[in-house]
Amino acid sequence: MNVYLVRHAHAGDRSRWNGDDAERPLSARGRDQADAVAQALRGAPIVRVLSSPALRCQQTVGPLAHLLGLEVEIAREFEEAAPLRPARARLDKLARLDGDVVVCGHGDLIPELLDDLRRDGVDVDGAGCAKGSVWQVSAEDGRYRRAVYHRHPDESLRPA
Fold first, then answer.
1. 13, 18, 43, 51: which is closest to 30 by C-alpha?
2. Helical H runs in the chain?
3. Cα–Cα distance between 17 and 119 in angstroms, integer?
4. So what's the pLDDT on residue 13?
């Protein structure tokens, strides 16, 4: 199975947004990135789509969830500035499911999760966490095997 860790797509400049940052929507570029994620993952056997409560995260995985006929589940463990331990515990539970899972989060937590996996001996192939990018984390029987970075999700992003 795979857990796809998706960094939310482009949402414009935080300093130019006047409202609550949790309500900052995707930009036009971000909507294009969200569509690219949906197209790249449309053939994967995804059974759940989870997102940080932030609107930009929900909008990033919304097209994919719609395409697959799934609901976007809000998961506070993956919100911005969330502590690592609860996020990792939730990730570990998801890695034991039958079927692939998508989790959309932020540029602070995703690298922390990957560093934690690396400390546990997981082969982490790549570096980065660009907006709209995807880390494909493969697991078998709840044990992580490998994490591969996809800066620009495309047709090459398929179950490993």
1. 13
2. 28-41, 55-68, 84-94, 109-119
3. 37
4. 82
